[in-house]
Each structure stands twice: as structure tokens, then as C-alpha cells.
Amino acid sequence: MGEVPVADSAPVPVPDAFVQALRALGLTRESALMGWPLTGGVSSDIWCIRTQDGLVCAKRALAKLRVAADWHAPIERNQYEARWMEQAWQAQPGCTPRLLGQHPESGVLVMQWLAPQDHALWKIQLRDGQVNLDTARQVGQTLVGIHRFSAARPALAEAFATDDIFFDIRLEPYLVATAKRHPELSQALHHLVEVTRTTRCALVHGDVSPKNILIGPQGPVLLDAECAWWGDPAFDLAFCLNHLLLKCLWNPPASDAFLAAFDAMSRAYLAGVDWEAREAIEARVAALLPGLLLARVDGKSPVEYVTDEAHQALVRRAAAALLLRPVEHLSDVRDSWREALLSVQPS
Asked: How far apart are CA 312 and CA 61, in angstroms?
């Protein structure tokens, strides 16, 4: 199971709800457990817990997310996360931690503990300008592999009828909330909501972000599928590509590398699409991207590193231009963003 999260940190008592869930799932016989609370999540309490068989990772969904905005979500969402993990593992073993159990009554999900020394967080690598194009390609290939596997099994739709949850956690806080702040873009943003909401062809993760991707010995490992939904796979690709664009503002010297990673992921993903015309899904991704860009500045979940007013203004200008005049190719989005970056680069 690997090393503990903080080698010099002493374990503390684990909350009783986690202990009872692990007992009910047959993962421990003990009445008290010790572990380490993990930081960084806004939607769940997460613990590394020591059991008699080794370390496990357990998470419990929160009803109110830890963000400044008033953002609530149903706690039963990690039942669907558990189902997503099962299907993703079948599609590509190792692309998610192995699921050990999920306790519906308490909302506790238990999974394999992945040792930090063997699994780097992709967000940290990108922050530091460590941009590996093979990693970007592998993320694209992993994502399209899950989408392709699920699209060939339409009966899965019944197990992921989470329209209301997806709307509450993704469409409303990102696109609908942003539309309220930008009346001039409201029609375009609500159109994106409608297209995304009514396109149903594959199993969607819903939060494919570098903060939820570990780079392990066998490739990318996707975490935190709390938004799992049977819907439009374009959302997953757009959500991840959006982060590569925004990272240009976090680490400007690495902008060219981030844009190269954008291209590498896009091409790897689109090469694996077989359930619909590649041109069709590329057009939906290209249309969604500016909406998600704007949402990470003016929605309910702004990225923590775009705080400079000039950078925020750049995002608003670039996103508005693409929302009002949508493009159909991801290369056009990339070129538009590259041009926008020139306005904040020193001459």
C-alpha cells in the first residue's frame, strides 16, 4: 500500500463514520482506526487509513462544498463514482485506483492507497513547468479508451442516470452561474448547457483535471469521479484541455509547452473516437472550451492561480470572442488563445 502521506506526521483517530463504514464493508475488524486526513479536496473528507491489511484511502462526500460560493451537492454522488471506477477499470485496468467498497448509508467510498512516491500529481508537474508530451498523449488515450468502452455498452446508461447531479455540480456552477455574470453571453452559454445536457452517448467522468490525475508507473490514474454521468464525452476532453490553456497564465515561460501538450492530448483523443464522427465531437469540445475558460474566472469554482486582473481580463476577452463566434477545430481555439496571451507578455 506504500508510504503514509506525511512521513513525519503522527496518525490521528479516524472519524467514527469511516470506521463503521470500513467495518460494514469487511475491510477492518477494529473498533477504532488511526490515519491521516488529506488536504486539498473541496467536495469530500478524505483520509489515508491504517488497517490490519495495510493502508487504504477513504472519502466521504460533503453536502456543501468548501468554496466561497453557496454550492451544495447530493452526498449519494459517490455511489456513482464507485460505479464509474468499476467500469473504468474494466475498460483500462489501472487507470483508476482499485475500488475496495462503497457504503451507501454513510457515503463513504474506500479504494486502494497509491503511494505518493510512485504517483506524482500532474497538477504539480505542470505548475513547475514539467510538461511531458507523452503524458498528455497518455491522458488523451486513457480518456478516449474509457469513452469508447462505455459507448459500446449503451445499457450502462441506466446505472448513470445522474442528470440532476451533473447539472448541480457541473453545468449550473460553471456555465449557468457564469451566464448570470455575463448577460451579453447568456444565450451562448445556455446553448452550451442545452447541447451538453441533451447529448448522451458515453460514460463521463466530469472532473478530468490535473489535480485529479496521478502519473504512475503504468501511466495516468484518474481520481474523483463524483460527477459520473451518462452523457456527452466532449465535456471531459474540454474540461481537461481548459486546464492546459489556463496553465499558461500560471507558468508563462512554459506556455509553448502547454500548448504543445494541448495539441498532443487533442490528437491522441480524437484518434481513438469511433462512436461518432470525430469532426462532430471536436466541434462540441471547441465550443465548450471558451465557456469553461470563462467559468474558471467568473463561475462558482474559479481557479486559484488566475487572480491578476490583467490575466482575468485576458480570459474574459478571449472567451467572449470565441463564444460569440464559435470555431469547430481545437487548433483554432489554441491559436486564438496563443494570440490572446501576447497581450500580457512583456514586449
From this structure: 31
CATH number at residue 64: 3.30.200.20
CA distance 180 to 36: 40
253 and 129 Cβ atoms separated by less than 8 Å = yes
Same domain as 235, residue 133: yes
Lookup: cell for 140: 488523451
Hey, what amino acid is at 286? A
Name the E strands within 1-116: 12-13, 34-38, 44-51, 54-61, 99-103, 108-112
> Which distant-in-sequence residues (6+ apart) come within 8 Å of 160 by Cβ?
80, 83, 84, 203, 228, 229, 230
Domain boundary among 90, 113, 136: 113
pLDDT digits (tens, 9 = 90+) for 117-168: 999 999 999 999 999 999 999 999 999 999 999 999 999 999 999 999 899 8
Locate the DSSP E strands across the chain.
12-13, 34-38, 44-51, 54-61, 99-103, 108-112, 120-121, 202-204, 213-216, 219-222, 229-231
pLDDT, tens digit (0-9, with 9 covering 90-100), for 180-207: 999 999 999 999 999 999 999 999 999 9
The answer to whether residue 1 is domain-embedded is no
Domain end among 86, 113, 140 = 113
Range of the domain at 42: 12-113
